[in-house]
Amino acid sequence: MKLFSFKNFLKTTLFLFFILLLILIVSGVSYFVIDKVQKKNNLMDIEVYSPVSSLIVEENPIKKSKYPFVDVHSHQWNMPLSDLSGLVEEMDSLNMGYMINLSGSGFATFSGNQSLMDLNLSKSLDNVKENFPNRFGLFVNLNLNKIDDEDFAQSSVDILKDAVKQGAIGLKIYKNLGLNLKDSKGNRVKVDDPRLSPIWNTCGELNIPVLIHSGEPSPFFDPIDKFNERWLHARQKPGSFRPSEKYPSFNTVMKEQSNMFKNHPNTIFINAHMGWMANNLDELEKHLDSLPNVYTEIGAVIGELGRQPRRARQFFIDYQDRIMFGKDTYKKSEFDVYFRVLESKDEYFDYYRKRHGLWKMYGLNLPDEVLKKLYYKNASKLFPSIDISLFE
Length: 392
Ligand SMILES: [Zn+2]
Known about the structure:
Blueprint: H1 6-40, E1 69-74, H2 85-94, E2 96-101, H3 114-131, E3 136-141, H4 152-166, E4 170-173, H5 197-206, E5 210-212, H6 231-236, H7 250-263, E6 269-271, H8 281-290, E7 294-297, H9 302-305, H10 309-318, E8 323-324, H11 335-343, H12 368-382
Helix pairs in contact: 4-5
């Protein structure tokens, strides 16, 4: 029997070549036709459409905040190893006096290996202590996957105590709690799960705040259709959405979170991203009124505030003792939009990320005293290690 026939090989190659050629021709023609039809009907992709505003109004771009500020919600993943001097230079240029790195354990957080996380936190703390002790605060991270282990509560308590002894100033809880985290039986761990109570109680005893991110913006739980105002987000980052077949509803997660706050009145919680209620400030008011142990920060939700300047301004005045500055993703070039929304009275200016909102921003023109509280005074109350004399 002949295993290899050159004739057959040639035949197959030629056949595949023609198929490939056919695919190329068909897709080329389709592309050409679609392009022609789109041009003829004046159609274009929503991501391409970038109209330049013809509105002529006063413009006051702000590259540096009016007062020094504390960013209470930052992630620096490589702090155990990185040289921090470049970062400090950037912080100076923004007027950021102090940064709280919620990811003290760095990349090890993704490994789920608690001893590696603890080791990385120690290294990060050493790096800060040796180089810029007045500029950074670090949060400890806990691996909640072992929630059913016999010694889970005790070992979590020990980790917290040890981290605080070494200099950590808070605990960060990631959004997997309430969404993806499962226990050993495969059940979703609710935000108000009693197995986590020893952790919250210990933070209260140690007098360190817990910054917690629960859920996602509410449109991420809604159907992805033409009515969803985060439709573009769904197209660019489909994994961010939380379809009801796989996830609890927005309201379920939020209720669990409020319940957990209520059950631990002696612990200070920072409800990250304005608790995903920046688009419903009436609701956030009720939340803060009923939970005196809860604070919030504005990370990643400036786009919600900048589209309702009058309502948001009133909110910042009424709740001036409860809100702090946060940014989340650290990118130097994006801070100016935060400053401009908070400080200026500019109208109709651009936000930096289309998928967060297809709308324009307006300045809140916050009073100086409110700005100071937002920028650093409230943070310095929650984090006494911040040396406020450097700010004034
Ligand atoms: Zn974050």
